[in-house]
Write a structure and sequence with these properties.
The protein has 416 residues and is an alpha+beta fold. The chain contains 15 helices and 14 strands. Helices cover 45% and strands 21% of the residues. Mean pLDDT is 87; it is low at 411-416.
């Protein structure tokens, strides 16, 4: 009767409880055996019923009422009556020295907790949890990379700020992280694409990346048939740098130390409003900027130029985007905003990738999903108090960043 009650409490199928070995406030040790009477020979497939001997194996299970649960498995070794080969029986509920539900719980907790916290919570070693997470991440990543990928997102994230980086690759349609490759150079991205093979690369139609020349080299070499789009977030940030340089020049009254304050307060306070699109301004902010532009006309010219550059992505089609680019060229030709020289060089160098945003079939896609995933990766890094091992960071990142169930983002509405 005691054995039956223990079997029900453990909720393990095809397991029979022999008896309770230890039943204390902190530990519960139960001796168990497999319910079946036979095992199939791994060599010839013959059903074996003859038991040669038994070997004891300790299996960790989920804690019960705060007590550490250990199963002492009387593991039988059978002798095949057909080929005389001896083999140990297996059980689907046991994976190594853990039960399946224990292994699943460790991996689930590792998605939101540090490995040390998971190990302390379940009273297991750090190495056991980390090895389990690494093995499962390899299985998950291999399954994701076997699927076809039409939209590939490429970006970088730091494992240690300004020192060590990894290249993050994502399926743009499902939001699944495919791999996290050490370094952020052409060799890192090329190595991943070579490993995937020509058949997988052939199905990639769109690639979105930042303005990295190293990534561009690898994409041109292995994904030359795909449409390469430069991420709009990085392009807009480049555009805004020209206005920032003009604003810094305008706001300075005199050299530091000769006037107090050294900067024009009104110009400095408007530094964030100047970077906004015109269609997002309220009446008060718009009036404040108009008063500022009447005092500083060059700042108004720079703001108008930035709005035309924003129009590249607010345009309905490629023709409207080229028209906005032409209006920006007219403003730059006046000579009032030489600070936009670097922006012009960037546009000339990346014009095909910038305008590819409006190509038919591109669906105005960006790296937005990947940028959000990078934020999750940095939260994961802070939870773990930093990483020193790239493999461990990649394993935890792949498990923590699963498929995104939200629908594809809608394209931005064009400016009226």
């Amino acid at each position: 009767m005691a054995s039956d009650s223990i079997r029900i409490r453990l909720h393990l199928r095809a397991i029979t409880a022999i008896g309770v070995v230890v039943d204390s406030l902190r530990d519960l040790v139960v001796e168990v055996e497999t319910a079946g009477s036979w095992s199939r020979c791994p060599a010839c497939g013959f059903k074996c019923r003859r038991v040669h001997d038994r070997r004891i194996r300790k299996i960790r299970d989920l804690s019960m009422s705060g007590r550490k649960v250990t199963l002492v498995w009387q593991r039988r070794r059978f002798v095949c009556g057909n080929c005389d080969v001896r083999h140990l029986e297996t059980h689907p509920e046991f994976e190594g020295n853990l039960t399946r539900r224990m292994a699943r719980q460790l991996v689930t907790d590792a998605k939101v907790m540090s490995i040390r916290a998971v190990a302390k919570r379940h009273r297991v070693s750090w190495w056991l949890v980390m090895n389990l997470v690494t093995d499962w991440a390899e299985i998950v990543a291999a399954h994701r990379r076997r699927q076809r990928c039409r939209v590939l997102l490429v970006d970088e994230t730091s494992i240690r700020k300004r020192h060590r980086y990894v290249t993050v690759l994502m399926n743009g349609e499902t939001g699944e992280v495919l791999a996290m490759v050490p370094h952020r150079n052409a060799a890192a991205l090329s190595g991943f694409l070579v490993e995937q093979g020509h058949r997988w690369c052939r199905h990639v139609e769109i690639v979105v990346s930042d303005g990295s020349k190293s990534y561009k080299t690898a994409i041109d070499s292995h994904l030359g048939h795909a449409t390469h789009i430069l991420d709009r977030f990085h392009v807009v940030r480049w555009f805004s740098q020209g206005l920032t340089l003009v604003r810094r020049e305008v706001q300075r009254r005199q050299p530091v130390g000769e006037a107090k304050p050294a900067f024009e307060p009104d110009v400095f306070r408007a530094r964030f409003a100047l970077l906004r699109r015109s269609d997002t301004l309220d009446d008060n902010t718009r009036q404040r900027l108009n008063d500022l532009f009447s005092t500083h006309p060059r700042l108004g010219s720079a703001w108008a130029a930035l709005q035309e550059l924003y129009g590249l992505y607010q345009a309905e089609d490629l023709a409207a985007a080229e028209a906005a680019l032409g209006r920006f060229a007219d403003l730059y030709a006046t000579g009032d905003i030489p600070e936009f020289h670097a922006v012009v060089n960037t546009i000339l160098a990346w014009a095909p990738e910038i305008l590819a945003y409006h190509q038919p079939g591109a669906n105005r896609i960006s790296n937005g999903r990947l940028e959000g995933t990078n934020n999750k990766l940095q939260v994961l890094r802070r939870v773990a108090y930093g990483f020193t091992n790239t493999t461990n960071f990649a394993s935890r990142g792949i498990l923590a960043c699963g498929p995104i169930r939200s629908p594809q983002p809608k394209p931005a509405t064009p400016t009226p």
